[in-house]
């Protein structure tokens, strides 16, 4: 391999589910080397103590979080922290020359007022925030390629936007009729001891939450508005499903042209995503199951038109921790580094 | 007990999940005695061989299905058969003087053309069908009280209609905006060896099916049209959820009066269901979980209004095998017999 | 009903899974009335706020825990508290004349040294403890009938002892060969936010815990020793299973008489339990599934003999929260009150 | 890459869970190319129709099974067929010069009488069978390296033998005291529509099956006898667990030397497996969870000694479809081809 050198990367917030997914994927990435894992509460412990199943393969400690040191040791930093922390760290890391991929909500919004309203936090880094690019490669590939700071999308927005984008971009639907009924596994709730996430509570049960007020709503709307060219409001309802991983977004919208049939839309979607290796449009009459996407970075999209009601129904399935989180961030890194977008990412789902 | 006599009841199709749920509930019902269990493929076997956990309590064989004999031995008959079989048997049982509660789709439709279109079966019993009453007591209590033949609602229609009825009956929504995104446990698929219902396939997965063409659509529409006073089309999408029991229907519709708030609707729903012991409207801000309903005949309904979009979101949760099937049939029987509607039915869910 | 009066009962520790199961069962018990619910952290809240699905049926507040007041208002008290608390309260309740059924470990041991060694707590109530009876009715029915204080068995010991008792009592096995490999659903871990009980961690996983040192070991051994007539050591290994409810104990032991066959043992077990309505010995070749027991107070026992190895294998299945906890306590109460042992308890499992 | 050539491999029986796991792993293997997929019932269909989630990546049809043609086109053949079919095909494939890895039971037994007794099939290929090597690399690495035909171990035997081998090989236990209480996810039952494998039946339930007579018993005993140097009988009991993947074997045996402590055994096991990259011995006091192994080819082994009873308890966890089936076969292929044993196999489990 001669003078081959792997790019040193760091993960801040390595102890959560997003973090461990990043570790697992980046350890197998052919161009990078994980050299730093950071965490607050677990600092000082070997990573293998948090996740014993990785102890044989990940011989790194969890270290304290010091942007100065991280900046010295790494070229790419993934921030997998609770909302409101990345915006404190990112400016320093950027100054040190790192590429920064933030998995929280901190750099997803072009208008920080929206952020402040929905996340209850004043922001002082508006100059930095203005340079951030929304990390959904299927929509913003070229801008991601030139960015130094990425606000990676939320899990629900990823599934929702991949379903909605071709429709909005091409003006096929009446935007205000769009409804996203989303369903997620409980790993989306994180590795924290909440009663409602216990197996005894969540298993064999199902319910909606955050109805009309989930924080992913303004994020979905921001991108939909960008695509539609005018302000769009979306009805978004998340549900907790008794499973570990996976998101299904079932999207309803009224077609402008009631003459469109299913196969027209399949053609349109395939054209829209023809350069997107991580999106697959299902065959006619085939609907995606979340298990298909589990373990891969794929998004599967199924389409149906109801000639009786004039609505299109789009179903998109992802693994919430991969395409919905860690995998997508790595996809963005690949693009930023000029590598193939698929590098080091799992293409084949884990089935059954 | 003096001359107390329990009413003899029979169950045809006792071997399926609907059947075993009927057996379990009717065995504990204080006014009836299960005297007959019928089945095709399992005829001749003791019932305890099909369900060994009931062998100590249910000492009955599964018998062949002969309407003549069933009519002689029972006064109330529950038909829990695949679609298209009840309509062959019910006329004979009615002639013998039995009350008949059919859990299939055969007697749910006032217009048999709809049935024939969606279920691919010609019908020759239109005179009988014309006497059937749709067995949703919360809507048709008084007609059920006088009926001899009940077409018990499907599981999805039960959850959907209990959520939609107050809105449609009082003209609160624009009917054509109504969307029902429904989610069901896999027991709704019955006790049959289908690949997609295997634990290895269905667990930790989630997907829609029958999109735009599920057979419960015309059933929901028929009752919605009756309530609205004119023909109504509903968007209905069912999903298979990795759990055994339970249905959640998430219903979206645009309010006619955008000034209505959540608590207005809670008041309206509570008034609508004030005489319905099996429906509970959740507190303000509380959303039902299917586990709440599991093991009881309850339907829990939660309400939310989105002032931004002008939509109401109604969530209703039931146990698909109890309020969605066997329990509701027994509720109907109670009404037909002049008993208290709650007699012999479980009020307290099985939690956790 | 004339001068019929229900017996007033109280539940201390109503907010946990044992507590809510007691509430659910006692609400349907024909001879008692729940008049008091107590809890520390939830005192002051309506019970329906902790378990919204019961709000329509249980109109009681959670009250502070004052033995004086509880003693005045109730005749029977169920204590469903963490270990080490019941022994502080029980003496006062007994003094007030209450029957006390303790679901914790506090009154399970005849030798308090064992308790202190395994539970790290000094005890000052040895006089009270000496009057306690171990609440496994299948073994100690007549002593329970005369007791005022019951130490209800743990969930694992219930399943284990019902499998082992006929073998030990009749000297059929070599006691020191006995191994109990036990498997439990996660509700046994209680309603607390522990990481390892999260659905995301526990679902689709399986592991042993407390190997060689689980606190149910000395409890099992105490009763086994009592049955064998000499001190017996048992190998006990619990496992956490990705399900909500249910325990299966798989018991291995070497037969003294290698000529015994399966059907001999079935006969012996049936004779042993002939007066025990809550134990069912499976048919020859039939092995119990925990789902059979789920929702009922039943224990199902299956038997197999391996002629090659000379071992008997006994499998016993219970619902850990019913026969393993709340149901068994009520069974004891029935016996103490002179009622039928089956009164108010569910006989038919909740299937599927 | 110059004249780099991938080795052409074929999979017969590609439609089952073992088959799809082979496809997924072999597609990512750097030295091979999957050129043939065979199946009986699915012949003629594109593989992507059986598993739509792989349609974007696996562009191969399922072809009819003709050993002549398979032999011409491939150098390595994996047979993933029901028992009794491989022995019809393997001789022809070997004659054509292929390396053959059989995942069924057909070539696991050195004594075909045992096979015939337990699998009810007469065999006519004893000369071929005599050349087969049992494909457990941790025990038979050097023989595998020289074999042309491998009988890959069953899933339960893999977990059981990795736990038992160091103990038996070093004479640390009394062999006849060994008991294997094994627990498996339902994917081990295959992709077939059996009632007991339905989610509605298997979820939230647990039971033993095949007690004293499971076909993996003689397989475990054959290898144990080989290790012990004399005939050994093992008590083996499998259980079905409500999860998709994973096996945990809990092994009990009496130590010859009661003075051995846990850390002695950890040292012994680590020495035994020091050249086995796919086995990890847990830290002292750490017990493996099946989820740790899920998605990787790892086997995690935990150890405990009970000084009270003189028994060792060994717990081993694997992914039944990877280390228990497809992954292990590929591990064998790597060894046969002279490649690194870890080539192309996942080292990092899929968590959570």
Which key terms come to mind for this protein?
alpha/beta, AGPR_type-1 (chains A, B, C, D), homotetramer, oxidoreductase (chains A, B, C, D), amino-acid biosynthesis (chains A, B, C, D), 2 domains, 352 residues, seven-stranded parallel beta sheet, Rossmann fold, seven-stranded mixed beta sheet, Dihydrodipicolinate Reductase, domain 2
For the record, what CATH class of the largest domain in chain A applies?
Alpha Beta
What class would the helix/strand composition of chain A place it in?
Answer: alpha/beta
Termini distance of chain A?
Answer: 37 Å
Tell how many strands the DSSP assignment of chain A holds.
14
Rounded mean pLDDT score of chain A:
97
Q: Which oligomeric form is depicted? A: homotetramer
Describe the biggest sheet of chain A? Answer: 7 strands, parallel
In what order do the strands lie side by side in the largest sheet of chain A? 3-2-1-4-5-7-6
Q: In the residues of chain A, how many domains can be counted?
A: 2
Radius of gyration computed on alpha carbons of chain A: 20 Å
If interface size is counted as residues with C-beta under 8 Å from the partner's C-beta, which chains form the largest one? A-B, 46 and 46 residues
Report on this model:
Chains A, B, C, D: Catalyzes the NADPH-dependent reduction of N-acetyl-5-glutamyl phosphate to yield N-acetyl-L-glutamate 5-semialdehyde. Chains A, B, C, D: Keywords: Amino-acid biosynthesis, Arginine biosynthesis, Cytoplasm, NADP, Oxidoreductase. Chains A, B, C, D: Pathway: Amino-acid biosynthesis; L-arginine biosynthesis; N(2)-acetyl-L-ornithine from L-glutamate: step 3/4. Chains A, B, C, D: GO terms for molecular function: N-acetyl-gamma-glutamyl-phosphate reductase activity. Chains A, B, C, D: It is an enzyme of class 1 (oxidoreductase). The structure is a homotetramer of 352-residue chains. By secondary structure, the first copy, chain A, is an alpha/beta fold. Chain A has two domains: 7-131, NAD(P)-binding Rossmann-like Domain (Rossmann fold, 3-Layer(aba) Sandwich), CATH 3.40.50; 155-320, Dihydrodipicolinate Reductase, domain 2. Helices cover 33% and strands 20% of the residues of chain A. The first copy, chain A, is built from 13 helices and 14 strands. In chain A, strands 3-2-1-4-5-7-6 form a seven-stranded parallel sheet, sandwiched between helices. In chain A, strand 6, helix 7 and strand 7 form a beta-alpha-beta unit. In chain A, helix 7 runs parallel beside helix 13. Chain A is globular. The model of chain A has no long low-confidence stretch (mean pLDDT 97). At the A-B interface, strand 8, strand 9, strand 10, strand 11 and strand 13 of A face strand 7, strand 8, strand 9, strand 10 and strand 12 of B.
């Amino acid at each position: 391999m001669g003078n081959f050198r792997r790019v040193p990367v760091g993960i801040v917030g390595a102890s959560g589910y997003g973090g461990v997914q990043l570790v697992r994927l980046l350890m197998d990435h052919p161009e990078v080397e994980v050299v730093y894992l950071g965490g607050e509460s677990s600092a000082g412990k070997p990573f293998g103590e948090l996740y014993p199943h990785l102890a044989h393969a990940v011989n790194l400690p969890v270290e304290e979080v010091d942007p100065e040191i991280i900046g010295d040791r790494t070229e790419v930093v993934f921030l997998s922290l609770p909302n409101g922390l990345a915006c404190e760290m990112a400016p320093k890391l950027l100054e040190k020359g790192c590429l920064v991929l933030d998995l929280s909500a901190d750099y997803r919004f072009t208008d920080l007022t929206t952020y402040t309203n929905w996340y209850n936090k004043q922001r002082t880094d508006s100059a930095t925030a203005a340079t951030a690019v929304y990390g959904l490669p299927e929509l913003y590939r070229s801008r991601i390629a030139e960015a130094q700071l990425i606000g990676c999308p939320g899990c629900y927005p990823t599934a929702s936007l991949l379903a909605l984008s071709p429709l909005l971009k091409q003006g096929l639907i009446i935007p205000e009729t769009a409804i996203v009924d989303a369903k997620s596994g409980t790993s989306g709730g994180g590795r924290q001891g909440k009663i409602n996430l216990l197996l005894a509570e969540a298993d064999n049960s199902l319910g909606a939450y955050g109805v009309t007020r989930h924080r992913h709503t303004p994020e979905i709307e921001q991108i939909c508005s960008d695509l539609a060219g005018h302000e769009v409001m979306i009805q978004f309802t998340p549900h907790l499903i008794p499973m570990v991983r996976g998101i299904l977004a079932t999207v309803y919208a009224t077609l402008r042209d009631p003459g469109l049939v299913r196969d027209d839309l399949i053609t349109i979607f395939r054209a829209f995503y023809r350069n997107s290796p991580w999106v697959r449009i299902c065959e006619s009459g085939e609907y995606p199951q979340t298990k298909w996407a589990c373990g891969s970075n794929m998004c599967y999209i199924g389409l149906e038109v109801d000639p009786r009601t004039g609505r299109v129904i789009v179903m998109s399935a992802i693994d919430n921790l991969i395409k919905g989180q860690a995998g997508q961030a790595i996809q963005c890194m690949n693009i930023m580094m000029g590598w193939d977008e698929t590098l080091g990412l799992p293409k084949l789902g884990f089935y059954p």
